[in-house]
Amino acid sequence: MSTEPRRFSVFLVPAAGDRRWADGVIHELADRYDTLPFEPHVTVYGGAFSNDAELEPVRRALADAAAGTGQITLPVAGLGVTEEYFRSLFVAFGEDPALRRLHEAVKGAVAQDPGYVLVPHLSLLYADLPLAAKEAAARTVALDRREIRFDQVKIVVPDPVTGWSDARRWQTLFRLRLGAPAEKVTTVIFDYGGVLAEEGFREGLFELARRQGLDPVAVHGAGMEAVYASGYVLGKGSQSAFWQSLRERTGLRGSDRELSNLILDRFVLRPRMMEAVRALRAQGYRTVILSDQTDWLEWLDRRDGFFREFERVFNSYRLGKGKRDPSVFDDVARELGIAPGEALFVDDMLANVVRAESRGMRGILFEDEPRFERDLKRYTEV
C-alpha cells in the first residue's frame, strides 16, 4: 500500500542565551505584525519520507554526527529580507565546516536527495508583507551579537494538512544534544512482540481476517484501537470486553478462547534474540522488558518461561500506562534507579523509540536481527 510522502526538516536549535534573544525577537515581531511565532532554528536539511523506516538512517546519521560534534557556532553576517514568506526577515550566517558536515551526513543518509541547498539563516519573521515593510521591520531589530551558538539538532515534521505554515503544529520526532558526553549504557530494555518474539497480535489478527473474508489491515487497525478503547491493555478492561469491541468494529466471529488462542499461538520467541539477551547478561548488562501487553504476557511466560532472562518485566496491563504516554519511560528509569541515558530501548515501532529518546534514553528501531546486532554494538560491548 503506497503512502503519500511527508516532508521533514533537520533543525539546529540555539543554545539557551542565544535562544532567549531570538525567541524574544520572534515573539515581538509576531505580535507587531499579527502573525504566528515559531521556534528559532537553522534548517540544516529538508526532504521527504514515505514511511518510518526511511527516517531511521537519518536518525543514525545525526546520532553519529552529533556524538563527534560539539556546539556549533555560526558567524553572524547580518540581517536579510526577501519577498519569500519563510525568509521574510532573518539572521544570515557565514559558512561553517561543522554545519556543512552535518548537512552532508543527512544528505548521505536520505533515500532520495531532493537537492536541498544549505543557506544558513535563522528566521525572525514569517509574514505576507511588502518588501518595504520587511525592511522597516529589520531596522527595528537590535542584532547585538557577532555569532550564535547552537547545541541541539532535531528532526521536525509539519502538520500533514496545514504544512509548515502553522508552526503550532510542528512535531519533533527526534532530538539530540550536540557533543553531550554519552552516559554508559547499563540497561537494555526490550519490547516483546515484534522484537523478542514474532508479532503475534498482528499476525493473528491478519490470519483471523483472512479466514473470515475480512480486510486484514482494517482488522489489525481496529484491533489496535479496541485493545486501548476496551481498557484491556492498561488493565482497566477484560479480554471479553476487548473481543466484544472488536466484533462490533469488524464483524469478526468466534469465541473469546478461539480467537485468543489463534493470536497466542503466533507469539513465538526468536532464539537469536534470546541469545542476545543472554550475551548481554553475561557481560553484566541489565535486561528488562517494557511491553504494551495484557495478561496474555503472563500466560506466554507460563508457556515459554522467558521472564527468568530479565531483571524486571514492565507490562502496561500491570502499570496502567502504556508507551503511548512518554512518561512511562520516566517511570521505568526511576524504578530501575538509573539515569535515562543509561538505558537503551529496543522497539519495532518508531513512535515508541522516539518517545523513549525524548525522555533521554538511547533507542534502536528493530527491523531485523542482523541489523539489531550491528546497532547493538554501537552502544554495548556485546
TrEMBL record:
InterPro entries assigned to the protein according to its UniProt record, in alphabetical order: Cyclic_Pdiesterase, HAD-like_sf, HAD-SF_hydro_IA, HAD_sf
Pfam families: 2_5_RNA_ligase2, Hydrolase
An example molecular function term from Gene Ontology annotations: glucose-1-phosphatase activity
UniProt xrefs under CDD domains: HAD_sEH-N_like
Protein name in UniProt: Hydrolase, putative, cyclic phosphodiesterase-like domain-containing
Entry-linked NCBIfam families: HAD-SF-IA-v3
Gene3D superfamilies listed in its UniProt record: Cyclic phosphodiesterase (3.90.1140.10), HAD superfamily/HAD-like (3.40.50.1000)
